[in-house]
Specification:
The complex is a heterodimer of chains A (208) and B (288).
Chain A: H1 6-13, H2 29-35, H3 51-55, H4 66-74, H5 78-82, H6 95-99, H7 106-119, H8 128-143, H9 148-158, H10 168-176, H11 190-202
Chain B: E1 3-5, H1 16-29, E2 33-35, H2 44-50, H3 52-69, E3 72-75, H4 78-93, H5 95-107, E4 118-120, H6 121-129, H7 131-136, E5 146-149, H8 170-177, E6 181-182, H9 196-199, H10 201-217, E7 222-225, H11 228-236, H12 238-245, E8 253-255, H13 256-263, H14 281-284
The chains are: A mainly alpha (208), B alpha/beta (288).
Bound molecules: iron/sulfur cluster (2 copies).
Chain lengths: 208, 288
């Protein structure tokens, strides 16, 4: 199995959502997993037309294009999909979603894949959009609102502090124009928000 | 009709002039908005990337608070708008998700029954106030000002139906009602890179370059935006785009509310025009 190329696997797996025989069932476990998560159902509708890929502003940066990603999900290629950079380059512009002739809500699917990649620890080390998202979540859980200065501090600490330097002119520009507050705005009822978050954490995620 | 204003985090920081101009313009237009009491961040695209259930709860708290206050929830930020809208959609379409979010909110003493309508500020101003009412209050006609109307992506997508998702026109009609001219701008609803500017700057700069070129090639003197993230990227990073691509853009980017405010005769300072990185003062001197 490990020797099969991506193309061969896609060839065998694409469109075989209900196929049995030939391949071991486990091969399709990933498809089941994705389609059972809210936002992931769309994988069954796809006709591989490539409109999403042609529309995506960042497809050329992705390890696998949006169309290819669905083929790989159907082919059960969990590791390759979840360790790819594709979903992390999705900017949530929704162009794929409004154009898909089959009504696949592709942007929703990208979030399903981001969640799975992070939660199953498959995302590659050095994934900057993921590091940024984590810094964001840390700040939100603390203050209830965004505070750019803290968030960037956590982010650069987590990635590479030296890469913060080229950003300095932008930061200074915003600061001198009164657009970068030094102190965070906190919500008043932080206790309530934290209770809600703690409860939600017990509920085992968005899928069943 | 009661409106509940949800400024969102950016309008307290990088987008502060959007908040100022919104409040000033609404006052003149007689659009009364009550702030959402003790709102929290919508969760944004970043929280959704990490844990969708938690972010639905984050966003759900705002919807529940708004339901308690009773009225349409108005978001000036396109990202907040899309996230709050998505939360409503998920709570409606997925009963299990609704149950879980309900359980979490209940732990905090809140409940949400799906009754909060989420709207973008631009849609409220254009549809509820209307062009005629705006035009009738114009004090300084923006005659001849060539404006590129930038919608970005999330204002017109994915499924909201306020305007065409790819070739929207509403901001163009607004510019004309103020006396200006909406230039041809083919990339008006293409992506600015959004939050990727912070983690994958090179990719976002490439997208920004295309937008700026599309606008300036068509003669735009100024661009208007309806989202703090679009505005931040196009305004604060324009210098970086110039350096990376050897370009010489010098295109002031205004919030659409700032443009309305100018035409209504509101003091530029009260509209936060002094906070632009690419200064608009010289260009707009003729209109103030
Ligand atoms: S546009 Fe829709 S149907 Fe076509 S490949 Fe993409 S997801 Fe599949
Ligand atoms: S929503 Fe994401 S995947 Fe879809 S076109 Fe936009 S950037 Fe590409």
């Amino acid at each position: 199995m490990a020797s099969a190329s991506i193309e061969e696997k896609i060839e065998r797996g694409a469109g075989l959502a209900t196929a049995d025989g030939g391949e071991p069932k486990a091969e399709y476990g990933f498809l089941e997993e994705v389609r059972s998560i809210p936002g992931g159902e769309g994988v069954d509708l796809c006709i591989q037309c490539g409109t999403c890929t042609g529309s995506c502003p960042n497809a050329n940066e992705m390890d696998h294009t949006p169309r290819e990603l669905i083929a790989m999900i159907r082919a059960g290629m969990r590791d390759q999909v979840l360790s790819s950079n594709s979903m992390w380059y999705c900017a949530s512009c929704y162009l794929c979603t409004v154009r898909c002739p089959r009504g696949v809500k592709y942007t929703d699917l990208m979030y399903v894949l981001k969640n799975l990649a992070w939660q199953s620890k498959m995302a590659k080390r050095g994934n900057r959009p993921l590091a940024m998202a984590r810094s964001f979540v840390d700040v939100l859980n603390r203050f209830g609102r965004v505070h750019e200065a803290t968030m960037l501090g956590v982010y650069y600490f987590r990635t590479n502090p030296l890469t913060a330097l080229p950003l300095a002119p932008i930061g200074i520009g915003l600061l001198t124009h009164g657009r970068l507050p030094l102190f965070p705005h906190r919500i008043k009822n932080q206790a309530q928000l934290q209770t809600i978050v703690r409860k939600a954490q017990e509920l085992g995620g968005i899928s069943q | 009709m009661k409106y509940i204003y949800y400024p969102g985090c950016s309008l307290e920081s990088t987008g502060i002039s959007y908040d100022r101009s919104t409040r000033a313009v609404c006052r003149v237009l007689g659009l009364e908005m009550e702030d959402l009491e003790d709102w929290n961040c919508c969760g944004s695209t970043a929280y959704f990337a990490i844990d969708e259930l938690l972010s639905l709860c984050f966003s759900g708290r705002n919807l529940a608070l708004a339901e308690g206050q009773g009225g349409d929830l108005v978001a000036p930020c396109s990202a907040c708008y899309t996230v709050l809208h998505k939360t409503n959609r998920y709570l409606k379409d997925y009963p299990d998700v609704r149950a879980k979010v309900g359980t979490a909110l209940a732990a905090g003493g809140l409940s949400y029954h799906g009754g909060t309508k989420v709207r973008h500020l631009a849609e409220v101003i254009l549809n509820d106030v209307g062009l005629e009412a705006i035009a009738s209050r114009v004090q300084r006609n923006l005659h001849g000002l060539k404006v590129a109307t930038y919608y970005g992506c999330q204002l017109v997508r994915p499924d909201v139906g306020f305007d065409h998702p790819e070739f929207p026109q509403s901001l163009g009609t607004l510019v004309e009602a103020l006396g200006g001219e909406a230039v041809k701008f083919p990339l008006m609803s293409r992506c600015c890179g959004g939050g990727l500017i912070m983690s994958e700057e090179q990719i976002a700069l490439g997208l920004l370059n295309k937008l700026l070129r599309s606008a300036t090639d068509n003669g735009a003197q100024v661009m208007i935006a309806a989202c703090p993230l679009c505005h931040l990227n196009l305004d604060a990073y324009q210098g970086k785009v110039n350096r990376k691509f050897g370009a010489q853009y010098n295109l002031p980017v205004l919030y659409f509310t700032q443009l309305i405010g100018l035409a209504l005769g509101i003091d530029p300072q009260a509209l936060g025009l002094d906070k632009n990185i690419i200064p608009a003062t010289e260009l707009l001197a003729a209109y103030v």
